[in-house]
Protein 1
Amino acid sequence: MARAISTRRQVAVSVFAWVIALAIFFPILWTVLTSFKTEAEAIASPPSFLFFDWTLENYGEVQERSDYFRHFMNSVVISLGSTLLGLLIAIPAAWSMAFVPAKRTKDVLMWMLSTKMLPPVGVLIPIYLLFRDTGLLDTRTGLVIVLTLINLPIIIWMLYTYFKEIPGEILEAARMDGATLWSEIVHVLTPMAVPGIASTLLLNVILAWNEAFWTLNLTAAKAAPLTAFIASYSSPEGLFYAKLSAASTMAIAPILIIGWFSQKQLVRGLTFGAVK
Amino acid sequence: MGTITLSKVTKSFGSTEVIPPLDLEINDGEFVVFVGPSGCGKSTLLRLIAGLEDVTSGVIEIDGRDATRIPPARRGLAMVFQSYALYPHMTVAKNIAFPLKMAGVDKKVADEKVTAAAKVLNLTDYLERRPGQLSGGQRQRVAIGRAIVREPEAFLFDEPLSNLDAALRVNMRLEISQLHQDLATTMIYVTHDQVEAMTMADKIVVLHAGHIEQVGSPLELYNNPANMFVAGFIGSPKMNFIGGETASAFGADTIGVRPEHFAIATEPSEGAWEATVDVSEHLGSDTFFHMHSGHGERLTIRSVGELGLKHGDKVYVTPDQSRIHRFDASGKTVAS
């Protein structure tokens, strides 16, 4: 039975939710506002919230000083590339774990997840040396490989939970209907898992887009994505808050827009299988 | 042709043997029903024939060809699942055409076959719908259509009617029987419902704990059950089993009498047992009486029409002497 919730309680919960949401959103809002201030206003104390001289000069200067488009393209290539490569490996992997599990499948899944708990800095030096010796430093290929490996456990886990929801009888029916393993995956499993694959793709693009540790440490100029573009504004000559904010806004805008329009898919992807 | 032969087939999951060595012969064109309580291994047996499970040992031959290691796709069998197992992202037409597409059949030929199957199954108006927009009965017909177009050696049905409501189940039962008559193809049908088994089968295979208890036509099983398990499983309401002195008098450890093989009288007579009515179930055409006898045994008795008996009434019931089944201590039928 649904319990009637008192209005007062409802208001309290709503207010609480709004406060939390605003607290999370505030840094982003502040960054966007600061990007429209002059450098002097950006560090003014007390800070002005909305009543300042709005200016676009930071955006102009940022575009002049560094090539936004090149960084943007690097981000696109790296995040999409690592996601697609990851899916290519993860779909067969998740298929086998979901539909033909072995005795140790659960352990393998846990082990894969455990790699995400390792502090990345712990493997920085070996990976850096490997990249140096194989000529992968500061290349898009190198970053695609490393980000694929980093996010692969999450891709496999997400797809695994999606595939688990697909009734095995449908795949057996396909087998009885004369489908080979390949046609089973192409004609039956993949189309049925499209919503799951789409939200996995989205989430992974976002993760790869925002990834800063490896992209900063393994790139210099050529393959530097937007994370490096932002970082270049915190320089030894001093902090330029307004320009840094403008750069940040430009870096997060594309992913924020994609995220906004795909909210529904993302929430479904993250909570899938949590409640049945 | 659709003869299927199982020789010494076994199946184990880990250390649990679900099918002990089993031999079975299914003739071309036969409607064979595997029946038994849940967990008796009937579905596993069907899946072994389909190739969806690997046999642990033994040989499965289809049309005299060893099919034991052949993958399901190449056994030439079609299967209808309990959950229908339709492809939710495809239209009805595409669902039915899928096996043809997999077999590389020419698009035009495939379309013709789909149209013909849809006509047979009354699905013509639904070809462009998706499974989600169909009722349970329609979905099951699509699943059957998908099986028909392949023109398989044999059809395998895994409890296909369990998800349907009672009225629809009776209809579909008739439709499947009609289909068998039209196609004259071998059909293997798994069910836990003995009514389905009795009404549809040419041959019933009664399974219990992976063993075949008896193979025979519905009336053979009804009239001459091999043991107490088959006697109790086939027939509704269940056969009455009576032990003790009453059974000894017939030279058996237990005797069995079907509910319909009793005569009920209000006056005592030679060979009649005294009993008291507990509950009467009125079906209109029949009445089921649940009674207890003077020896404390529970009896279910079926009589045609209404007798006007009520709770607590004392009656005299006489079993039809020619239809008393006698069983020994191990439950096997005693030869008369």
Protein 2
Amino acid sequence: MVDLLSPTFLTAVLAAGIVAGIPLLFASLGETLAEQAGVLNVGLEGMMISGAFVAFVTALAVGDYWIGLLAGGIAGAVVSLVMVVFCIRLGLDQIVVGIALVLTAEGATSVLHDIWYSRSYPRLPNVEPFRIPLLSEIPVLGGSLFSQPLVVYVALAGVAFAAWAIRRTRWGLELRAAGERPDSLDAAGVSVVRTRTVAELMCGFLAGVGGGYLALVGAGTFVPFVTHGAGFIAIVIAMLARGRPWWCVLGGLLFGISLSITTALQVAGIAIPVDFVEMLPFISVLVVLVLFVRESRLPSALGLPYLRGSR
Amino acid sequence: MTGSNDRIGSSTVGVSTPAVELSGITKAFPGVIANDRISLRALRGEVLCLLGENGAGKSTLMSILSGLYQPDAGSIRIDGREVRIGSPRDGRELGIGMVYQHLSLIPTLTVLENLMLGSNPGIVLDEVRARARLGDLAARLGVHVDADVRVGALSLGQQQHVEIIKALWKDSTVLILDEPTSMLTPQGIEELQKVLLGLKASGLAIIFITHKLHEAIAIGDRVVALRQGRVVGELGPEVLRTGTPHEIQGRIVEVMFGEDPTRGPQIAELREDLAAERSDARTRLEGSPEILRLDGVAAPGARGQHGIEGATFVVREGEVLGVAGVDGNGQRALAEAIAGQRRSSVGTIHLGGEEVTNLSVGARQRLGLRYVTDDRLHEGVVGRYAVGLNFVLKRIGDEPFWRKGTIDRKAIETTARSLITEFDVRTPSPATPIGKLSGGNIQKALLARELSFDPRVVVFHKPTHGLDVKTIAAVRDRIRALAARGVGVIVISTDLDELIDLSDRVAVLFAGRIVGVVENGPQAATRIGELLVGGEAAA
Amino acid sequence: MSEAAGRTAVNPRRADGLIGRIGLALGPILLAFLTTAVLLAILGRDPVAFYRDILLAGVLRPSGLQDSITRMAPVLLVGAGLIVSFRASLWNLGADGQYLLAVAFVAGVGSRVIGDLPPVLGWVVLAVAAMLIAGAWTFVPALLKARYGLNEIVTTLMMSFIGIAIANVLIKGPLKGDEMVPQTFVYPEGTMLWDLPGTTIHVGVVAALVVVVLVHLVLTRTSLGTRLDVLGANPRAAVHMGIDVPRLIVVAFFLSGALIGLAAASDIMGIFGYVRADWDPGYGLKVVPLVFLAGLNVIAFIPIAAFFGVLSIGGDYATRKADLPSDFILVFIGLLFLFMIVTQYVSARRARGEPVLPAWFRRTLPARDATEGDGG
């Protein structure tokens, strides 16, 4: 039996929690942008799994996980293009299109995986953590917070940038207006469709990167349905974050740690059924959702298409 | 158009060149010609008032001027130069500032953010510059505006100032005010006059759109009357500045309706017989038993709107109680609390002596309480359902329309046919989806549903909002007839004239509280205005 | 998450007339077949052979045909369950969790007790229990929706993942049989649902058809059906009309779950007789597009369920023969879904007499749809 409060144990839990939480951070950050602009992405899971698959294929071929992540992001953006055309441009139901995206993306990646890899099951090498000098020497935190793959710090920088951009740039202002009162934005001479399109593509890109991270750094390989509902959890986190990117960090971390604790307990010799481990993130997210149900507020025009001249 | 033909063709920009000149503007929509060869001009330093009923083509014309629509024919000159306005952005670049009919500000954003939206030059928001510009323009208007308050927290008057500032942001030469609000009290009109006076002096051309005679007279230097898409007359300053308001009013009606004096009386403002009717009613109400009583009722608001607090009042049988107030001050909460759609957390509601505070919507309906909602299309009816089915949607499962839980379409159709006749609902058949009817006919269908089956108290929420003149008259007649039958009536409206027209007493709602109740009479409008302003000052 | 403002109605616009409706359903199916054929060709498979195999294994072989008809039962019931909630604009996307929890019970507990119960009564008791369990699994999302307006899409999905995991925990633990592999006991000889004489089609299929017709009558003829439709058209209108919306939400969700639970009972007692851990047919999301294809009409859904039966039985064989994973069928259904949305969009525009192409595609033409008093 391992001492549960030993620094090594805590370090492991925190480090694993961050690894598990980063995909959620990316995806929920993307969903935050889209929701602020008035688009609800039920298809987020589909963007993530497409990103995961393409990132894996690319990283395997090129041998560089940065390029892999980039490719994953592009794949996610391509999938989100369907949302752009059907929902933002044509004004079709965002939920229905979202479900269709999830089905198609899950099916397609599973089929391609089966065709290409079901006999070899290739794996990627582990990603080297980037140890921040000095900080990584701090007990517990140093080995977890400050010894992560470089992309983790990039993600946090991205969150800081998004938080600033939403509040302080013209683009962020237009984003919020598009989700709140698209007709007012239109009257102000800014294209609602373009604003939402940009937000949606960024959402797809971020979800794709999140999925790519899940495959490349988290799992080291791609298996069908590897995202296992992470996209839906990311939607919940974005709903609770209400346009505040730093809350996505919190949500991602909560999810990641609830996963890593159970894993760590198993390692520590405490028998927990694997199904229970899979269930815990959903329970914790659901509990948080219930606790903060009064807090959550979504943009007024979320989920509603905007077509000028129709009311 | 009459007069000033000598100026046409002048090419030099000067005082005499109109800031805006429209000639022969025509715009057709499927089935209707919204603008038919309209020509008019707006001069610098002058308020041009565009007067006409709903549907006369005013808003279409201004949408063309602001670049939202393209005309089918005709030309637009700005400062003597012919221009093509392809988009609202083009319009702004040409110096046309527009204040829309429905406020276009975003309530969840701050004043400054609203002003920067669509006007910030760089990628990063330049708050310093915007703040300075706001200060300049506010000074020009002679008002004070707090830059960092969320717009939703401002009073309507303040929001209107922000709207005007937004319209002037890019050094506009023309300011268009499209029916700025229907709740312009006498005091509000006075204040707007003051603001516009300053703007006129700085050389702006102002176009003010309204369907109300008295606003046109009070604010306009020139009045152009539109009817059915055409200019039917124009009155210059020489007319508007001589004679009593009553005489001017007469002149305008003459211009608008020509030799057809029967049309005039459809405008409620001109119905002098109503005052007499009201005083009759008051004597009738003496000793009439109370039918609805609210005691200290509180109910929460939704979506940034006010709830209500401490609402206490009585409605008697046969009485019309008006509720005045600016939109979003708790009207919806009040109406829904009475109807039971929103649970009141505090206080009691009695209907004819029986407490209904904890009864459901359905139970209150069965006791004779009716609610005619303002959101006809999305709350009042189910658009894709037949007119007939919509008539019985408040009685789902009840005999005779449902027998042992199973629908009886025959019974529904029979009832529907008789209601359609009685309430003059123009529909191809009872089976037509109600969403395909015009707004006026949907409202008639709603009245048919709510006013049949023995109502005892009816709450009307903006009963004539967005309707055409004839339907407005029909709806108001129904309301008067209802009260005459002894039903208790509450009319919640943002249209002050409507309240003066219909009510026996008017309660004023401000920030979720009833700040006073005014007996209807000669000075009622002014008194209501005071309460609205007083309420604003108290907040 | 108080309700995403004024949610668009779920119900797709229904085309006029039977022909129009059939066209609306067939068009997307044909388009999906064509696109899938192109994909197959890209993957180096012979599309013609693939579709021939589907037809062969799903219809032409007597055993295949009977399997296809048998497969209709769960699809019909799950579909009817989804239709009940979707008509009320309630997105019950948690069918998989509801189904598997009922499966775990009917297989795990049912296989132990069925031998001690009189034949028909035992089936009824287990079926009712399955309905109650699956129905009860909707309570959390239903109550959160009814009480706080919490978006049910995410909550039903969360509850589904949790339900699937719990079902697996149960099958591997308390409900495990005495085999080495994690699976339940098997129904004893002679305790399964009877087959129709001379076939391998069990009576559960007939029961499913009867239930589905009953559901149709409830939805179209009764006051409950009207209430569900009003709620689906607009929750605010439902409140205004005096409908007890919170109660109706709970009822609709429960009925939806109960029908899905009945599908589980029919599958276990009619076909499998036991369940293995980690087994998940994933009906939930796959059936969603199909019920929309039927315009949320239960009767119109019957032929579509038959189509799906053929597709999945024949598809199993065809994918195996073409050396593709069975998930290939997901791609087909996803495409079917997308094409269906586009087809309905186009036909709705045409029905309104609007040009088929949207405004942004025709920038040069003047704006339309404008009326007086329209500020924006």
